[in-house]
């Protein structure tokens, strides 16, 4: 067990950047009430464009000028998740409220194909360039695998729910840097899948001091860590190889007392790893603020790696039958 001292903010405060024109990127809202809209956003592989929607048309912005380049796909149905094709910025996968996925070509302004495999709205999309697949997740707790050369469905997998939990709520998916392992995140669990077989290797279920629902989770840039946020304000860092808990960051380490005691209480809604610093990540809070976190300079990293016993990390074989990994509680940061 490593000693985790109090303090979880970044040594350099992030700066808000805008182009000289003063433009802001604003979504087309349409007629959908804001509280019913599903916000979604995606950055192109060359960081030149950002695609975004929030109940209305999908907007494509220039990242340098913030100008709207084009809008498309007016609802209904509304877009609920967006993803750029990893090799062609003109091809976009758009998950919809009606459970379909539209493969859209921006250059010719048309839908190439509609994919049907889910029963409820699409909540996640992730491309693997090495495996030539698109994995989709939905509010039906299903994962679908699509071949990107033919767009045919290769497989459908139901995520295994903990006892007493219903298969509902958003499911998110993200590939690791090698694009062969898939991180699957649901409010009831974090799981790692072998993407080539779509077999679950590890699963972690909220427990102990981390018993609240999971709001979001994400790989670090080198895919060695998983950063996870919880609806009670806790943040946890796991080893990506086996989902062993490295450390826990309590809400008091990065939020004010007023935010913690507000009604409703503020909590981390989304997590994103820094693209180059594997130990740094950001959390977007439910009050609209963003906090960037990194370990203390004296620590250098989050907690300690898992012990190796008989050649197997944490003494557990990577079997799909594993339901959880013991979460060793550490001193809160």
From TrEMBL:
<keyword id="KW-0853">WD repeat</keyword>
<dbReference type="InterPro" id="IPR027728">
    <property type="entry name" value="Topless_fam"/>
</dbReference>
<dbReference type="Pfam" id="PF23726">
    <property type="entry name" value="Beta-prop_RSE1_2nd"/>
</dbReference>
<feature type="region of interest" description="Disordered">
    <location>
        <begin position="295"/>
        <end position="333"/>
    </location>
</feature>
<dbReference type="InterPro" id="IPR001680">
    <property type="entry name" value="WD40_rpt"/>
</dbReference>
<dbReference type="GO" id="GO:0006355">
    <property type="term" value="P:regulation of DNA-templated transcription"/>
</dbReference>
<dbReference type="InterPro" id="IPR015943">
    <property type="entry name" value="WD40/YVTN_repeat-like_dom_sf"/>
</dbReference>
<dbReference type="InterPro" id="IPR036322">
    <property type="entry name" value="WD40_repeat_dom_sf"/>
</dbReference>
<dbReference type="Pfam" id="PF00400">
    <property type="entry name" value="WD40"/>
</dbReference>
<feature type="repeat" description="WD">
    <location>
        <begin position="115"/>
        <end position="156"/>
    </location>
</feature>
<dbReference type="InterPro" id="IPR058543">
    <property type="entry name" value="Beta-prop_RSE1/DDB1/CPSF1_2nd"/>
</dbReference>
<feature type="compositionally biased region" description="Low complexity">
    <location>
        <begin position="317"/>
        <end position="333"/>
    </location>
</feature>
<feature type="domain" description="RSE1/DDB1/CPSF1 second beta-propeller">
    <location>
        <begin position="178"/>
        <end position="294"/>
    </location>
</feature>
<protein>
    <recommendedName>
        <fullName>RSE1/DDB1/CPSF1 second beta-propeller domain-containing protein</fullName>
    </recommendedName>
</protein>
């Amino acid at each position: 067990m490593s000693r985790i001292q109090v303090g979880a903010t970044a040594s350099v405060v992030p700066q808000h950047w805008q182009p000289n024109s003063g433009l802001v990127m604003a979504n087309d809202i349409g007629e959908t009430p804001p509280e019913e809209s599903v916000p979604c956003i995606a950055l192109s592989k060359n960081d030149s464009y950002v695609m975004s929607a929030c109940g209305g048309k999908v907007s494509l912005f220039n990242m340098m000028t913030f100008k709207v380049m084009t809008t498309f796909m007016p609802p209904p149905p509304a877009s609920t998740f967006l993803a750029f094709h990893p090799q062609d910025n003109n091809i976009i996968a758009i998950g919809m409220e009606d459970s379909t996925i539209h493969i859209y070509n921006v250059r010719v302004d048309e839908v190439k194909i509609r994919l049907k495999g889910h029963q409820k709205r699409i909540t996640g999309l992730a491309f693997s360039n090495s495996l030539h697949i698109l994995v989709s997740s939905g509010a039906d707790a299903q994962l679908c695998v699509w071949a990107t050369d033919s767009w045919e469905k290769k497989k459908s997998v139901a995520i295994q729910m903990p006892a007493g939990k219903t298969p509902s709520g958003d499911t998110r998916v993200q590939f690791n840097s090698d694009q062969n392992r898939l991180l699957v995140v649901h409010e009831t669990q974090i799981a790692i899948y072998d993407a080539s077989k779509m077999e679950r290797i590890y699963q972690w279920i909220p427990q102990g001091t981390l018993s609240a629902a999971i709001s979001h989770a994400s790989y670090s840039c080198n895919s060695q860590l998983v950063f996870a946020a919880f609806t009670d304000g806790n943040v946890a860092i796991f080893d990506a190889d086996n989902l062993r808990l490295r450390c826990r960051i309590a809400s008091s380490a990065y939020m004010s007392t007023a935010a913690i005691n507000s009604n409703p209480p503020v909590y981390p809604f989304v997590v994103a790893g820094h693209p180059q610093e594997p130990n740094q990540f950001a959390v977007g809070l439910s009050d609209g603020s963003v906090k960037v976190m990194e370990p203390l300079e004296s620590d250098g990293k989050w907690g300690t790696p898992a012990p190796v016993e008989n050649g197997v990390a944490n003494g557990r074989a990577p079997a799909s039958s594993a339901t959880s990994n013991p979460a060793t509680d550490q001193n809160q940061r």
